[in-house]
Structures are given as structure tokens and as C-alpha cells.
Amino acid sequence: NAGVTQTPKFQVLKTGQSMTLQCAQDMNHEYMSWYRQDPGMGLRLIHYSVGAGITDQGEVPNGYNVSRSTTEDFPLRLLSAAPSQTSVYFCASSDWEGARGYTFGSGTRLTVV
Amino acid sequence: AQSVTQLDSQVPVFEEAPVELRCNYSSSVSVYLFWYVQYPNQGLQLLLKYLSGSTLVKGINGFEAEFNKSQTSFHLRKPSVHISDTAEYFCAVSDRGGSEKLVFGKGTKLTVNP
């Protein structure tokens, strides 16, 4: 099925560990974004990309890195996990200007202990 | 920069009652507006969107929203809700003309009681 695929669905990390959250889309969308969702905070933008090789920071980028080597993939790297990064992470993609609305993955629930 | 305010964090209603979820936005440019729904333990699903044209927008599951430029609002309505509409609803805005960022409100939790 066409859409946005995120892996893993659940992850527990120890403080200081690093990991990569994977995101792939098969709709040939130019725009991809990473959000984190925390209770009462809505969704906050971490990083986004407007095409392969182009990324930029969102509202809450600290502690996260991204790269976009292909149109399909947009991994999110946690460099040194902290308890404050415990959250649900969503990847989303869209075509030109987001005019058709972003398509979201099913999310990754991350716990940092 | 854009911002979105959802005026109610929680809205309890009885089944078959009408509901309105309120959303106000601020932006210095023209915008696209969206409503998303998130059912428990799931991702976000697009409910409806306003891009241009008619200010009354119809979406899935019987929801509709009205764009009011003078009041910078985009309120979501449904004339008769069902238990299955219990979910969290998010209003979101993006700038026209090339801004790639979608900015979300903090969400409104709709609880439909029997």
C-alpha cells in the first residue's frame, strides 16, 4: 500500500545511546518532515526537507540530525538520547506546497530511560 | 511565522448532538488550512482542507469547516456526532507560495458520550 512507513514502532533507549528512526515513502513526494507529539503540546516540527539533499530545521531541532540522500527516505538520528526526547515521533510527506495535505506514518513511540 | 490556536483542549458532547471545534490562526501571508483527526494509538488522518475557492469545505465522516478570513478562523463542525468520532482533532496551517512547514495547534480532544 502506498504511504509513509516508519520503523520501529516502539523503542526503549538508555540515556546517551544513539539510534536512527527510519521513514520511507513511495508516493514520490518532494516534501518530508519529522514531528514529535507530546501530551498537550500538539505536534512540533523537528526537521524538514524539500527534496533530496536539502534539509532545514524546524521548531525543536536540538539533539536530532537528518539527511535526505534519496527522495524516498528521510531518517531521523538521535545523537545522544535524553529523557526529554521521550515522545511519539511522526514522519510525514507531501507533494508540492503541501496542497494535498501531508500523509503521516503510524508513528514511533520512543522511551528514553 | 504562522501560529494556530485551538480554543478548547477538551470538548465532551452527547451522541447525536452537534459539535464545533474552534481554530484560529495567525499569518502574515495567505494560507492553506487543514484539520486532521487522530484516533487512539494511531497516526493522523486528513479530515479536510481549505486551499482556495468556497469558504465552506466538506470533509470525510460528515465533518465540515468554514474559512473566515476576516476573523482568521477555521472552525470544524458536525451536525450530529457518533461515539466513533471520539478522537483528538488538530488544526494546522501552512503558508501559500512555497512554505513547506505545516504548523499545528495543540489539539482538541472530542469525547462523545452515550
Overview of this protein structure:
The complex is a heterodimer of chains A (113) and B (114). Chain A is mainly beta and 113 residues long. Helix content of chain A is 0%, strand content 51%. In chain A, the strands form two sheets. In chain A, strands 2, 4, 5, 6, 9, 10 and 11 form a seven-stranded mixed β-sheet that branches. In chain A, a hairpin with a 3-residue loop joins strand 4 and strand 5. Chain A is globular, with a radius of gyration of 13 Å. The mean pLDDT of chain A is 92. Chain B has 114 residues and is mainly beta. Helices cover 0% and strands 54% of the residues of chain B. Chain B is built from no helices and twelve strands. In chain B, strands 2, 5, 6, 10, 11 and 12 form a six-stranded mixed β-sheet that branches. The mean pLDDT of chain B is 91. Chain A binds chain B through residues 31, 33, 35, 40-45, 48, 50, 58, 90, 92, 94, 97-107, and chain B through 6, 9, 32, 34, 36, 42-46, 49, 51, 90, 94, 96-107.
Layout of secondary structure:
The complex is a heterodimer of chains A (113) and B (114).
Chain A: E1 4-7, E2 10-13, E3 19-25, E4 31-38, E5 42-51, E6 54-57, E7 64-66, E8 76-78, E9 87-94, E10 103-104, E11 108-112
Parallel strand pairs in A: 2-11
Antiparallel strand pairs in A: 1-3, 3-8, 4-5, 4-9, 5-6, 7-8, 9-10, 9-11
Chain B: E1 3-6, E2 10-14, E3 19-21, E4 23-26, E5 31-38, E6 44-50, E7 56-58, E8 64-68, E9 73-78, E10 87-95, E11 103-104, E12 108-113
Parallel strand pairs in B: 2-12
Antiparallel strand pairs in B: 1-4, 3-9, 5-6, 5-10, 7-8, 8-9, 10-11, 10-12
List keywords for this structure.
heterodimer, A: 113 residues, mainly beta, seven-stranded mixed sheet, four-stranded antiparallel sheet, 51% strand, globular, B: 114 residues, six-stranded mixed sheet, 12 strands
